[in-house]
């Protein structure tokens, strides 16, 4: 089983579990919410960045390799948080230890619910 955890679910896990939250969620908790590169999307370039090319201080060949369509461009670094069954079990266990069984089920991400 492989599923994705939404941004809202990541926020809840960060508040409850702190550093024990899945690594992708924990990393998102340290980023600004209005940064287009922080949240994975089909269109990370908005406003001026969408139509205006910014000159690079990098060497020209390197700058060409790191353009927007490149898979190594900074806008492609942030991927959705994916979990498998073992990670879901670890999340469930940590939530149960912290909150108790009844409240842990309500805070469990949708991808981890049966």
Termini Cα gap: 10 Å
Helix content: 40-55%
The percent range for strand residues is 5-15%
Order of helices and strands: EHHHHEHH
Taking pLDDT < 50 over at least 5 consecutive residues as the criterion, the unreliable ranges are none
**What form results from the Cα inertia axes?**
elongated
Mean pLDDT across the residues is 77
Radius of gyration: 18 Å
Largest sheet: 2 strands, antiparallel
Strand order of the largest sheet: 1-2
What's the count of strands?
2
By secondary-structure content and strand pairing, the structural class works out as mainly alpha
The number of distinct helices, counting runs of at least 4 residues, comes to 6
How do the helices and strands line up, and which of them pair or pack?
Elements: E1 2-5, H1 7-17, H2 23-28, H3 48-51, H4 60-65, E2 81-84, H5 85-99, H6 101-107
Antiparallel strand pairs: 1-2
Helix pairs in contact: 5-6
């Amino acid at each position: 089983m492989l599923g994705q955890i939404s941004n809202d679910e990541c926020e809840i896990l960060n508040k409850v579990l702190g550093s024990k939250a899945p690594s992708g969620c924990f990393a998102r908790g340290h980023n600004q919410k209005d940064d287009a590169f922080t949240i994975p999307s089909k269109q990370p370039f908005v406003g001026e960045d969408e139509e205006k090319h910014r000159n690079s201080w990098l060497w020209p060949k390197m700058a060409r390799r790191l353009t927007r369509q490149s898979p190594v461009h900074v806008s492609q670094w942030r991927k959705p948080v994916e979990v498998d069954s073992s990670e879901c079990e670890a999340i469930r266990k940590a939530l149960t230890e912290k909150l108790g069984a009844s409240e842990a089920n309500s805070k469990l991400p949708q991808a981890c619910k049966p």
